[in-house]
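queue> pop job 88
queue> type: inverse folding (structure -> sequence)
queue> payload:
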């Protein structure tokens, strides 16, 4: 009898049109999950609330679906719902996709976030790849159904997360990056309708694009693509919005860290047929690239010491100065900013732009759930090379045999990320020794 009452109460919370009911239901879940575990009542309430939330995604009323999505997001932030997903993975994914296809902007934003959390929870493997394959078309179509900033930003973040976790190769990642790039830099044509996006959307797209770029091997990307992206990012450094400038600055630093622009300069300098830049001879192409590098260095230098204008928020100005001081130090001397944050009683450290971009993106996406995921999400722990002391004490006896095989597999996303990071660290070390990242035309001509 008590269980039926709990079910009715949960259903009522999800179907109530009062906005406060959403807060109430989320607060109820938080209090349930933070209570002392061990009682059947607490465990039942958690499972019951999630079951009711997923069932409510079938409802016709949009406000009901929105509130159920908020409950699901809160649940996946508070705990890694592995057992729940064993029975409800496919149902949750396809109902979230239905919300994206037919929902309001708010519902689309919530469903996008839920799908991203779903991917981070299941980790790399068949389920994550299924999320990517099933989601990419609905997400692409949703980009065209309106230009609301919050909706577009949520869709972009979702696409970045599901590609980061579920992408099996560079081709899939590159496809997602191209979808993002087309939002802010569409190729003009008779069938292309350009939409002027807000600064918030542009910053979100550049951040998501950079996040995925951290997983790519820059040596395999075309010089023409690099020139297009670095030129566009340089133009963005002159934009009025600070969030756009900071996102562009971090993307520029990442491209230099990957050594891709330096490779492009070498190719332009050594090309005999002038094919690197269409319509230009090799010497002209090299001069153009060198001039672009010098322009970027001057832009970064100016932004690192910019004075505050009328109405300028001091905090935003300081954030910009600090960010571009780090970029400038890297471009001139090859030193990456080193960061350290506390996760419980442990420290998570980064020493490369790729790591810092990944960390900042995932912290923004997970919000209050970041600490919980870093303490228990083994995929994210592998990405950052982070091992909580609690896990050190427990060892690996709680990891299933299939999970152990996944982490050991040389073809797994985790091992690819680990190998890529080691390669980047070696590249950085070499760069510091020979001044690889210093922008100095005289040195390169010699």
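queue> result:
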């Amino acid at each position: 009898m008590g269980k039926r009452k709990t079910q009715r109460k949960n259903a009522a919370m999800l179907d109530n049109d009062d906005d406060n009911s959403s807060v109430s239901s989320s607060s109820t879940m938080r209090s349930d999950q933070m209570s002392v575990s061990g009682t059947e009542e607490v465990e039942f309430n958690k499972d019951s609330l999630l079951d009711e939330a997923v069932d409510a995604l079938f409802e016709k009323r949009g406000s009901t679906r929105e509130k159920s999505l908020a409950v699901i997001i809160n649940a996946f932030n508070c705990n890694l719902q592995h057992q729940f997903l064993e029975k409800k993975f496919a149902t949750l994914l396809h109902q979230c996709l239905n919300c994206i296809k037919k929902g309001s902007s708010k519902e689309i934003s919530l469903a996008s976030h839920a799908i991203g959390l779903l991917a981070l929870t299941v980790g790399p493997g068949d389920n994550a790849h299924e999320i990517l394959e099933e989601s990419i078309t609905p997400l692409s179509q949703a980009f065209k159904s309106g230009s609301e900033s919050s909706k577009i930003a949520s869709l972009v973040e979702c696409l970045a997360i599901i590609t980061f976790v579920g992408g099996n190769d560079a081709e899939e990642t590159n496809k997602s990056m191209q979808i993002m790039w087309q939002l802010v830099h569409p190729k003009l044509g008779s069938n292309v309708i350009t939409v002027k996006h807000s600064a918030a959307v542009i910053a979100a797209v550049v951040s998501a694009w950079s996040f995925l770029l951290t997983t790519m091997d820059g040596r395999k990307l075309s010089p023409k693509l690099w020139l297009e992206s670095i030129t566009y990012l340089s133009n963005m450094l002159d934009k009025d919005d600070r969030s756009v400038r900071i996102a562009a600055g971090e993307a520029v630093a990442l491209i230099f860290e990957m050594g891709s622009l330096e490779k492009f300069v070498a190719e332009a300098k050594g090309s005999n047929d002038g094919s690197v830049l269409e319509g230009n001879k090799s010497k002209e192409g090299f001069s153009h690239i060198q001039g672009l590098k010098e322009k970027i260095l001057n832009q970064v230098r100016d932004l690192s010491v910019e004075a505050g204008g009328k109405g300028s928020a001091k905090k935003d100005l300081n954030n910009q100065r600090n960010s571009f001081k780090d970029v400038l130090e890297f471009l001139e001397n090859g030193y990456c900013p080193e960061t350290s944050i506390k996760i419980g009683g442990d420290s998570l450290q980064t020493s490369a732009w790729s790591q810092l971009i990944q960390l900042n993106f995932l912290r923004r996406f997970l919000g209050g759930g970041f600490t919980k995921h870093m303490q228990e999400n083994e995929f994210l722990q592998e990405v950052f090379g982070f091992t909580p002391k609690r896990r050190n004490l427990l060892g690996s006896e709680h990891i299933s045999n299939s999970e152990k095989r996944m982490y050991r597999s040389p073809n797994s996303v985790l091992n690819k990320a680990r190998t890529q990071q080691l390669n980047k660290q070696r590249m950085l070390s070499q760069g510091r020794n020979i001044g690889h990242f210093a922008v100095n035309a005289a040195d390169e001509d010699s």
